[in-house]
Amino acid sequence: MYDIIKPDWPAPYREIWELQKSIFNGLVDLKRRGKSIDREAIILVEHLPVITLGKHGKSENLLLSEASLAMRGIECIRIERGGDITYHGPGQLVVYPIIDLEKHHLGVKNYVHILEEAVIRTIADYGIKGERVEGASGVWIDAGAEEERKICALGVKCSRFITMHGLALNVNTDLDAFKVINPCGFIDKGVTSISREIGYDVNLNQVGDILLSHLKQLLN
What we know:
The protein is an alpha/beta fold. Helix content is 29%, strand content 27%. The strands form 2 sheets. Strands 1, 2, 6, 7, 8, 9, 10 and 11 form an 8-stranded mixed β-sheet that branches. Strands 4-3-5 form a 3-stranded mixed β-sheet. Helix 3 packs across helix 5 (204-219). The model has no long low-confidence stretch (mean pLDDT 91).
């Protein structure tokens, strides 16, 4: 059973981060005490502008000072997920599954594959072909071509098989916002969005419902 959580959008990153940690710590505690987990959670949210650096994030991939970013209304936060650096902001769908991988008979690698597959199926519903790139998590368009570009970033944390963090799919995102970072640490690859690929904006809630449907099907 999943608790589907959709806070008011757009939401401050720190607020949702604290919510994630609260749910995550509760499930980890249940596992530690040998209790069964009957309810898991999936948070769907749109964030206010923020840049997050994962535990292996490199400061040189941040192209402006934190003071300069603050003047633009963009916070910079160092967090505990895997991955390097990314941007969250309006027009982007962020999904945080907080689930027990052991319950789903999954390892971390297979779980990441499922997150990517949910996105690949979602954007296929809008006529976009998403692909994987060897050695680079997330979902890409025109993989292997000169114009290879990323449409979805991904980074997770796992403890006692409980997950947190997740994926960020660019839907109607202002892609200029990525110019203040080297997205995911890459300096030679572009970013894109559903609206950029198809030429018009789409309903963010609708994309969330489609992605959630694919994700639940794949997890179950």
